[in-house]
């Protein structure tokens, strides 16, 4: 059985797609999609030998080798331009996901959907998408086994009528606060419009983390720590205001 997180990613892969799952580990996602007859072809990419071998074994054991190709390589280097329609990258940091997309930009021509699930640093992913003319079409948030995950789905600007101007348009949040592009890159433009209890929990936990860092900085007499403390205080104030407005 797939985790709820991977199931939510799987649900979004259009039936009949050719997909690549980058950082596939045990190739659970492509195996599930292939078993269900939901993809016509899949590439499971892995940069590390151990997970690559685990993926290869999984595909062999499930007799899915005619659909899933397991390849060893860094990021999008494992695919050719035009080879797949959908790319999933899940279970790593947002900065790493953005680095993988940046390094493999030339492989994205012809790709019609990215489904990205950063564990942390979602804003790096949103920023990369925005700067490269990919439009966020959906954001989901879920809690599983005590962890909170976001799933970001994007399509190329030329394939959708939704524009990034519209997605990140400054909008009023609750009473009184205007969410600008910067705030939405952090909190999620869609998540912010329909904040769920999991989203509130995520940002409350984030505030706790920031408070801990602020407390540590407060013990230092370095000038540098003072300015970092001020930045964190401003960030906490902003998040608190948004949460208070929406609750
Ligand atoms: N995608 C699966 C999931 O969401 O359950 C596995 C996530 S696992 C925590 C992250 C995987 O990404 C690891 O197996 C790691 O080897 C792989 N990885 C990290 N950097 C990578 C890169 N640059 N290219 C391909 N795979 C990478």
Structural features, described:
The protein contains ten helices and nine strands. Helix 4 (94-103) packs parallel to helix 5. The mean pLDDT is 96. It has two domains: 4-162, 3-Layer(aba) Sandwich (Rossmann fold), CATH 3.40.50.150; 172-246, Orthogonal Bundle (Helix Hairpins). It has helices at 4-12, 28-35, 49-61, 94-103, 122-131, 164-167, 181-187, 189-193, 197-218, 223-246; strands at residues 17-22, 39-46, 68-72, 86-92, 113-118, 134-144, 147-156, 171-173, 177-179. Bound molecules: S-adenosylmethionine. S-adenosylmethionine (SAM) binds next to strand 2, strand 4 and helix 4.
- The amount of helix comes to 40-55%
Q: Give the CA-based shape.
A: globular
Strand content: 15-25%
Describe the sheet with the most strands.
7 strands, mixed
Protein name: tRNA (Adenine-N(1))-methyltransferase
GO molecular function: tRNA (adenine(22)-N1)-methyltransferase activity
Pfam families: TrmK
Feature tags:
247 residues; Rossmann fold; Helix Hairpins; 2 domains; seven-stranded mixed sheet; 10 helices; binds S-adenosylmethionine; tRNA (Adenine-N(1))-methyltransferase; TrmK; SAM-dependent_MTases_sf; tRNA (adenine(22)-N1)-methyltransferase activity
